[in-house]
Amino acid sequence: MTAFDDTAAAELARKDRAHALHPWGEVCPSADNGFMVEGDGAYIRDLEGHRLLDGVGGLWCVNIGYGRREMAEAIAAQVMRLPFYSAFIDTASIPATELSARLAEATPGDLSRVFLTTGGSTANDSAIRFLHFLFNRTGRAGKKHIITRADAYHGSTYLTASVSGKFSDLSDLDVLSDQVHHLPSVNPYRRPAGMSLPEFCDEKVADLERKILELGPETVAGFIAEPVLASGGVIVPPEGYHRRTLEVCRKYDVKYISDEVVTGFGRLGHLFASESVFDLVPDIITCAKGLTSGYVPLGAMILSETLCREASCGESAAFSNGFTYSGHPVACAAALTNIAILEREDLCGHVRRLAPYFMEHLGSLRDLPLVGDVRGMGFLAGVEFVADKTTARSLAPEVGIGKRIGAACRRRGVMVRPLGAAIGISPPLTIGREQIDILVSALRSSILEAADELTREGVRLAS
Ligand SMILES: Cc1ncc(COP(=O)(O)O)c(C=O)c1O
Description:
Layout: H1 6-19, E1 36-40, E2 43-46, E3 51-54, H2 57-60, H3 69-81, H4 94-106, E4 111-117, H5 120-137, E5 145-149, H6 158-162, E6 180-183, H7 197-215, E7 220-225, H8 241-251, E8 255-259, H9 274-278, E9 284-287, E10 299-304, H10 305-312, H11 329-344, H12 347-363, E11 371-377, E12 380-385, H13 401-411, E13 414-415, E14 417-419, E15 422-425, H14 433-456
Parallel strand pairs: 3-13, 5-6, 5-7, 7-8, 8-9
Antiparallel strand pairs: 1-2, 2-3, 4-10, 9-10, 11-12, 12-15, 14-15
Helix pairs in contact: 3-11, 4-11, 5-10, 7-8, 12-14, 13-14
């Protein structure tokens, strides 16, 4: 690594504070950001030289881990062969074509037509636009409404921010509201006292059906859903929910978009989780992140052949939507190599084998103060913190519990992602038992430290 003495590091921080506007960042920042400068395997290193276990996986995405020379070589080779050429003018790139075919092979049912994008937001944006295109073309232009859920995150374009359900993100921003409808949270931990999980599932499925009937099925285009709601707090809907919500959608010809931006590419132990984990064959799957393990940006919307035939009505029909860098050849070459690595090293199998250990170890944190819920699947987990473990009373947002735990873990050499009153954990899929132990141990001491700190500050806690 290039050495940065204190003066050079301070100058870097000054430039960042003066000139960068970070995602979700302050427009006039008051505090300095830290810099991450290197990665190797499941570890990253910051500018000060601290080596940190990356329990975040970049941002739910560095599935194959850092420092893969094979990725660098595939990317460099494609840059030298042909970095870019437009896919708009009746030409295709070889990596984009090979990747489309590979994705079609990996997806369930007849999901076989791949529209490559630049990331997850553009994939979801395109999916919603495709539904409008479909219904406009087939004489059902009234079908416009999109149903989504509280706690969902689908992206940061105008349209995908509108269908996201993390309401605190939307406070100072405008979004579409006329055509977007949020169902209540599907978080089993927050179900009414005394309600069983099967009853909760019935209730959540009924929420969807009620909303479709309230709006009128002839006005509803689609339902968009992450199989596990990641940024909303790693929420796993109750068992049977996915399949049953699909049946409701089928009943009213409401199309189902399964947002696998986080759950795809091994995170839940399969290339795609919709069918393999949740018995769900949707009309559209969207993905990004783990598609290239974050080495370069790329996303995809994968449509069923049935949907495409329906939209074409047997005649030539152009879907006038796309981006200059849709299916960028360099990104597609990276994705092909990433998938080859996932398969060669059987990282999906590794996740399936080790996930019980991962979840069980995290589950041991339930005994600690503040820990209300520990949940997740595969290598995707969340811990929700509360003031009162018996009643699930929340901590005041000003306590900043997720951030406190995140900072305490970092001091112990482990990164986790603060998500409001929860933290998210999604390490590279290459981690082993030893790293799981390190992660859980750092969390354990950080939670105890935070509980002590809050008690000293006079915050009322009950266990
Ligand atoms: C489930 C889900 N969908 C979509 C997105 C948006 O993807 P991107 O940030 O690549 O646009 C994200 C990003 O975190 C996500 O978690």
